[in-house]
Amino acid sequence: MADTKTGIGASVRRKEDLRFITGKGNYTDDINLKHQTYAYFLRSPHAHATIKSINSGKAMKMPGVVAIYVGEDLVNDKIGGLICGWGITSKNGEGMKAGPHPVLAVGKVRYVGDHVAMIVAETREQAYAAAGAVVVSYGVLPHVVDAAKAMTSKVQIHEAASDNRVFNWGLGNEESTAAAFKNAAHVTKLDIINNRVAPNAMEPRAAIGSYDTGSDIHTLYTTSQNPHLARLVISAFNGLTAEHKLRVIAPDVGGGFGSKIFIYAEEVACAWASKKIGGRPVKWTADRSEAFLSDAHGRDHVTKAELAVDANGKITGLRVHTIAAMGAYLSTFASAVPTYLYGTLLSGQYNIPNVYAEVDAVYTNTAPVDAYRGAGRPEATFVVERLVETAARELKIDPAEFRRQNFITSFPHQTPVIMCYDTGDYAAALDKALEMSDYKNFASRRAASAKNGKLRGVGFSAYIEACGIAPSAAVGSLGAGVGLWESAEVRVNPIGTVEVLTGSHSHGQGHETTFAQQVSDRLGIDIDSVSIVHGDTDKVQMGMGTYGSRSGAVGQHAISKALDKIEAKAKRVAAAVMEAAVADVEFKNGTFTVKGTDKKLTFGEVALNAYTGHKFNTSEIEIGLKETAFHDPANFVFPAGVHICEVEVDMDTGHTTIADYTAVDDFGNLINPMIVEGQVQGGVAQGIGQALLEGVVYDDESGQLLTGSYMDYNMPRAGNMPHIGNFRLGFTCTPCPTNPLGMKGCGEAGAIAAPPAVINAITDAIGVREISMPATPLTVWSAMQPLKMAAE
Amino acid sequence: MSIVKMKLNGKVVSGEVEARHLLVEFIREHQGLTGTHVGCDTSQCGTCVVHINGKAIKSCTVLAVACEGSDVTTVEGLARGSDLHVMQAAFKEHHGLQCGFCTPGMIMSAIDIVKRNGKNVSEDVIRRELSGNICRCTGYHNIVKAVQAGAAAM
Predict the structure, then answer these.
(1) Using one digit for the tens of pLDDT, what is the confidence trace for B73-125?
(2) Which residues contact A150 (CB under 8 A, 6 or more apart)?
(3) Helix (H, G, I), strand (E, B), or coil: what is residue A302?
(4) Alpha carbon distance A641, A20 (integer Å)
(5) In A368-398, which positions are buried (b, 16+ CB within 10 angstroms) versus exposed (e)?
(6) Tens digit of pLDDT for each residue in A610-638?
(7) Mutate to test the interface with A, among B58, B101, B103, B143 (most CBs of A within 10 A)
(8) What count of CB pairs under 8 Å joins A to B?
(9) Looking at CA atoms only, how far is residue A354 from chain B in angstroms?
């Protein structure tokens, strides 16, 4: 380790913080370009309707209006629709039944909030006012918003899918799983709804399209987690322009949680419209209401789940049938979420010989559903951990011990659902969590709560996730339209400072710090001599962006590879300068030495020599010190852990308090424990939010979004979280064998682990088998009434 | 349109606004101070909190013209040169921010909480008083720690 205060493993305070705490962040809406115009999107007030006509004549005459565009204008300009980048093959061999996804609606709207027209004006207020004067005649159609009803509804949302079913997908061995259930000593069955949630990054989406008439180059500033992917899709599929004529900049981005992975209509429309109006920039910023209407939502699964257990308490089979809502259109990665990110994790941490998953993905007249923090893995974990906890209670086995006796204990472990877990020690995490949570004294805490009129319960969640989706050839064979590698360029300046250009994108994760720690540690230079550059396709060579907790395992691995090349090149330069053989040059703590001599050069001296070229033969060694690497991982990485939640339920009101929360996670080696802990805390908060507070509700009858603002959608507040002294984090470590830093991913663990831990605790507290999320006071109170009546 | 004049971060500024313009629009768009953010349209999220005459106010709920003659401080007005306000320093030290979007509003609210409740403000009071500031990244754990530390230093 080069410097224990700033190297790998140190809780270095974040380099990026200064600009954020002083108000100098640079988010998309903070950017204002000369002569910019403002866009407003007129949205559908109906869940499902034909568009008979759009009359914008009066609106065009309103003050400040520059242009008004409708779907046909983009079609006439050969701008293609939005795409779904992952093809899923149904059990019967058919491909996805995907309907068109135009940038602005053509002929039909399919959800409340669907894009009908784009108004461009001199000011935001003028664009908004003119939108009110656009006259749209709709032919209102019946709609379906409930995933469970979509396949049997008479409503048809897309011509391509007569029963609204996009695909019927299966994974695992159906026959052997059926046999396991036939031979089971005990079967636990649950009906599970994984509630639809809205991602709610605090920065609303925004985009500025700017076309330069002189160079024929489009620049798009946007709130993206993956600017290069945005450039690829907008160029290759939407057909705006060739890739080299489109620059995408994602500056500071205020949170994503998956919702800013996807390519959205507004981004394409702003980039396109700027050219249409002669090059003036076109700026759009969502308000929160638009975010609720049009950001891709998460979850929304309706599942029948079963667990088979033999007479010895060994799990022998797990079977699910899931209906997964896709919303009105297939968003960028929507199809991958309830399939390869869900079915593949249904073995959990357990040695289950037979697993079978069948998934029907359905269109509904709602906002699209796509990846949200965890993406498929929270849904899988919720199914597995609700089943396992319920089975343990039914079998009257301690839930911790039931888990322990079914844990996978030898690695690598091939599950029946594709994944090969590389390493782990699940019992170690369980033991640590039991100790940290003082599980053995739970009964006395329960008694103490009862004295205060509170019902106390405890719930477990032993989760596993798969991060760093890879290798590219494998995901390609499963239907991915892209490779899932990452790239890095390490650029050493002549004075020995370093810039790292990474395809990963930081929108809260702290890459400017953790990536700099890695470089500082490796090259033995001061952390302040390293800067991290990301988020601009003109600066960064290539990239796949940040999602699925991939930036450490994949992005930093690419940096490691580039640093290997830097070290190799620098050694050649150092050898030449010190007149030694390359094999005799050693590099340690930022200094090059020659074995058996006292010759030495600092990293900075070698860098300067690499650029002056005075002391080596430049026909043998190229001038300069700059290397690029692409990295394609050999396997997924598999973070896992055990979370234990204790709740107190108020008997009179049904209000649930998180009384205590313990999270023990195995993320392999940690670069910056402070940042990792922050990721877990934030993820757990989102999981608690889903379990207790949050739920997107569409009205069955009207198809309207009922939870369209923070007045109606209950976001977790500071008061909803456990107290500082009641929220404990611990770590175990089995280093990942497939990357040089031994890292796994930490970004999603909390959101994956928390919901079943909380729900298991509530069901334990009030003594019911099932309770739906969000477990609001009304839901919990209602669930308690039959028990109360029975007791009275 | 009317001219509004106020003290903003210690300097007297004025600008022409429509009667309907919000203070946050005046701050962000007229004055170019983009540290104050807009995260919702219902005065819930708290990313726009500033101090008006020393009190924390959501600048999305105040009309710019109503601030005529007021003394307004935004997050940009807290540090003295390179010397951070102790609350700013506490947020960095305790990792009380991730994406940074809610942070200016959090810091402005936190300072106000301490001014009204004193250095020894309790965790419960901090959590209750922060109900008007939403953070999606941190789970509030480190924000509460930062506010406690900032309070002690104020």
Answers:
(1) 999 999 999 999 999 999 999 999 999 999 999 999 999 999 999 999 999 99
(2) A144, A163, A164, A165, A323, A325, A362, A363, A364
(3) strand
(4) 32
(5) bbbbbbbbbbbbbbbbbbbbbbbbbbeeebe
(6) 999 999 999 999 999 999 999 999 999 99
(7) B101
(8) 181
(9) 37
Closest partner residue to B101 among A14, A27, A285, by Cβ? Answer: A27
B14-17 long-range CB contacts below 8 Å, 24 or more apart?
B15/B64, B17/B64, B17/B65
The answer to whether A192 and A383 have CB atoms below 8 angstroms apart is yes
Query: For A626, phi and psi rounded to 5 degrees?
Result: -155, 125
Chain A hits for B88, CB-CB cut-off 8 Å, are 21-22
The dihedral built from the CA positions of residue A613, A619, A621 and A622, taken in this order, carries a sign that is positive
Q: Contacts of residue B142 in chain A, CB cutoff 8 Å?
A: 678, 681
Specify the residue for token string 């003659």: B69
Q: Spell out the alpha helix ranges (H) of A578-672.
A: 603-612
Residues of B with Cβ-Cβ distance to A254 under 8 angstroms: 37, 99-101
Q: State pTM to two decimals.
A: 0.97
pLDDT tens digit sequence for A659-709: 999 999 999 999 999 999 999 999 999 999 999 999 999 999 999 999 999
Structure tokens at A522: 């490796």
- Burial class of B56 by CB neighbour count within 10 A (0 to 12, 13 to 18, 19+): buried
* Token pair in block for residue A596: 């058996």
Q: How confident is the model at residue A1 (pLDDT cuts 50, 70, 90)?
A: very low
Structure tokens at A20: 């954020």
> Which is nearest to A562 in space by CA: A497, A471, A625, A494?
A625
ipTM: 0.99
> Is there a contact between B42 and A24 if contact means CB atoms under 8 Å apart?
no
**Cβ proximity of A462 and A455 under 8 Å:** no
Give Cβ neighbours of residue A206 (< 8 Å, ≥ 6 apart): A27, A28, A29, A221, A222, A223, A283, A284, A285, A286
**DSSP secondary structure code for residue A338 in this structure:** T
Taking a C-beta distance cutoff of 8 angstroms, is the pair A690, A664 a contact? no
Residue of B nearest to A123 (CA): B29
Q: Which of residues 115-134 of A touch B (CB under 8 A)?
A: 125
